[in-house]
Amino acid sequence: MTAWDSPAHPAEYDYLAFAPHWLRTRFYERYNEIKALPATVSSIIEVGCATGELARYLRHRYPRARYIGYDISPAAIARARQKCDATFICGHFQDYPTRAALVICRDVVHHQPDPWQFLTDLYRLTERWLIVRLRTGPHTTSATQSLYGYAVPYWILSKDDLRHWATHQGCGLTWLDAPEPSPAFWLRSAIWITRQCM
């Protein structure tokens, strides 16, 4: 059993399950990565969709877009399928060949054993935009975090190392570092990665 199999995981991410649409919209639209979403988009992949709360927002904002959400928690995916009419897949996105115009990944990169390979895999999914929210600091550091009683990786990535990664990938990188509502902003940065060759 892992942290993502814990019953506490889907329970934690079900916080807007019964909120009206206007409140869910207000909640998400205060975050930098949501403010950076393109005006129109034809397809979306969300990696780390949890219980589908952001999916509900995205499906309303882009009703004609094809949406696929991935998460490794069976209980979270089951809950997402109950709440939202969309495609949710329990498993690793790397096992599927589908790509999308917009790939969004919030607060997942820092829990990966190899965050650089994970970012590269995300970028390979991306046809146009990749929006990632992750932990940043002055230096790239690796530690562990206790989550639901289990030890999980916890990475903080430096902006210099992220710039180097983007240069190596040949992609454009934009920081979305305007202040966010507390407590969401501490040690989090959002980046907007775009394909240079369209």
Summing up helix and strand content along with how strands pair, one would put the structural category as alpha/beta
The total tally of domains equals: 1
Q: What separation lies between the terminal Cα atoms? A: 42 Å
Largest sheet: 7 strands, mixed
Strand order of the largest sheet: 3-2-1-4-5-10-9
Query: What is the CATH topology assignment?
Result: Rossmann fold
Total number of beta strands: 10
User: What is the name of the CATH superfamily?
Assistant: Vaccinia Virus protein VP39
Q: Mean of the pLDDT scores?
A: 87
In short:
The chain is built from seven helices and ten strands. The chain has 198 residues and is an alpha/beta fold.
Describe the structure.
The chain has helices at about 10, 20-30, 30-35, 55-60, 75-85, 115-125, 160-170; strands at about 45, 65-70, 85-90, 100-105, 125-135, 135, 140-145, 150-160, 170-175, 190-195. It has about 200 residues and is an alpha/beta fold. It has one domain (about 5-195): Rossmann fold (3-Layer(aba) Sandwich). The longest helix has 11 residues, at about 115-125. The chain is globular and about 40 Å long. The N and C termini lie far apart (about 40 Å).
